[in-house]
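Sequence in, structure out. Go.
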Amino acid sequence: MGYTASAFLTDDGVLIDSGIPAARADFRALIDRSTIRGAMLTHHHEDHAGNSELLAARGIPMWIAPATLPRIATIPRIRAYRRFTWFSMPPLRSTVRPFDEPPFVPVPTPGHTPDHHVFWDASTGTVYGGDLFLGVAVRVCHHDEDLHETIVSLERVAALEPERLFDSHRGLVPDAAAALRAKAAWTREIIERISKRIDDGESDSLILKHEMGGESTTGWASRGEYSRRNFVRSVRRGMRAHDTVRPTHG
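Output:
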């Protein structure tokens, strides 16, 4: 499908995320041959927490945010494009052994999801970023993403002045602080442009055409679940939440 989704195993045996369900056999082989002293999950999506049950069943200590835990214990049915891309994840059934003293600091970074966290290693200037970054000019999002919160999260992590970022879908991102600030600035700019069009009374369909270049292939394949239209809708929701303009429906 052209997507990659990575888990990261550090030299000192800390696992960040648990890989995609479709890679279960390879992931099992990895933990069989590795010494893993603990795992940390960035958020609940199946391309990040997809093999969390396997880790729990093996008794590997895990750091899981309180908001993430119920989301991986009860798994709703996902759409066909996600089942085709990386399969559905097994629900968490085994007892989780807590990772009581993880070496990295969990930093709350809501926006992509409410439960999203990144992990900060101050000793090496490294951020394990989950889906915080993904790229600078990202024009698609899920229906429940909050772009305003994403900007705050990007700036919070950039303020740590990280030297490098491990992104779950792009791999190593050097000059991490500059990349995070560039995305925050780009996102703020496009929100301002879309907000102006909303204020002028344009519909979501017109904004999608004029500002986003129409819908993406991913948007069509996902039947709108991960789409540019959702990006526009997130801006509109954010304006309503902050009472910046009188609501205009498109």
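Check: The first strand starts at residue 8 and ends at 9. Confidence is low (pLDDT under 50) at residues 244-250.
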